[in-house]
Amino acid sequence: MGMQTVTSKDGTSIAYERTGRGPTLVLVGGAFMTRQSFTPLAAALAPAFDVVAYDRRGRGDSTDTRPYAVDRELEDLSAVLDAVGGSFVYGMSSGAALALHAAASGLPVQRVSGMEPPYRVPDAPPVDESYGPILDSLLAEGRNADAVAHFMTRAVGQPAEVVDQMKASPMWAGLVAIAPTLAYDNAVMGDGVVPAALSHITVPALILSSTGSSPWLQAAAAAAASALPQGQHIARDGGFHDLPVDVIAAVLTEFFKG
User: Fold this and answer.
1) Greatest CA separation found in the chain?
2) What's the rounded Cα separation, in Å, for the pair 223 and 119?
3) What is the pLDDT of residues 188-201, one digit of tens each?
4) How far apart are CA 54 and CA 58, in angstroms?
5) CA distance linking residue 133 with residue 127, whole number of Å
6) CA separation for the pair 178, 59 (Å, rounded)
């Protein structure tokens, strides 16, 4: 199907697409991700699921309404779930944290999965207390490109020279365009620690990680799974904060069909 929209509680229009047949599985993107970011994964999952990928507010074809609050994102996801009849949710990175937050908040989620929610475990690099205020200041001044560079260097840990190379790539303009949503991802992550509310999630939950990721990201995935009453952690060979699409599809198919 082509793009469809649903109106969230505060009037924000949320764009989504669906493909495939079977139980409905909603995909939640992380930083810089739009629904198109999930196109390869949606295609791989389509034989087994009715796959729904949506643009979080402020991204792609979705609109935005200020002021922002994480609760508004939960209302967005709730609206999508209501529109498509979904009860399975998978999120990537900060999208995984949002998916878990949704399940803990009582949204009608029967099974939930996420790839490396970037919680800060004891062995992780210390939280940079200046990251959020500087990000907010750059965005308030309209310095979106500087905000992207700030995120890449201070949050992700990329060297400045790598960011300079990114600036010369075709993808840079797209990142700059949705830079304001970086503040939303930062709000979703809160203080960065594994939320105590994960203990409220009583449905089956699966956390994925890649052996190619930083050790702290892998540890964060394991810690999140341990905090979930019905949580499990699966690690597979892959790149940094990424797994091959066919690997993710196989693991998710087994979990959500289980």
Assistant:
1) 49
2) 9
3) 999 999 999 999 99
4) 11
5) 13
6) 6
Q: Where are the domains of the chain?
A: 4-123+191-257, 131-185
Enter the tokens of residue 143.
């310095």
Omega within 30 of 0 (cis) for the link into 126: no
Locate tokens 């965005």: which residue?
A: 139
Number of H helices, E strands in the chain: 10, 8
| CA–CA gap between residue 76 and residue 185 (Å, rounded) | 14
Rg (CA), the chain: 17
DSSP state for residue 98 in the 8-state scheme: H
- Confidence class of residue 1 from pLDDT cuts 50, 70 and 90? low
pLDDT in the model for residue 126: 76
User: What is the rounded average pLDDT of the residues 130-134?
Assistant: 95
Consecutive H or E run containing 135: helix 131-140
CATH no. for 4-123+191-257 = 3.40.50.1820
User: Could you tell me the two tokens for 199?
Assistant: 């203990």
The string over 66-92, giving b where at least 16 C-beta atoms fall within 10 Å of a residue's C-beta and e elsewhere, is eebebebbbbbbbbbbebbebbbbbbb
Q: Residue 258 and residue 171: Cα distance in Å, rounded?
A: 38
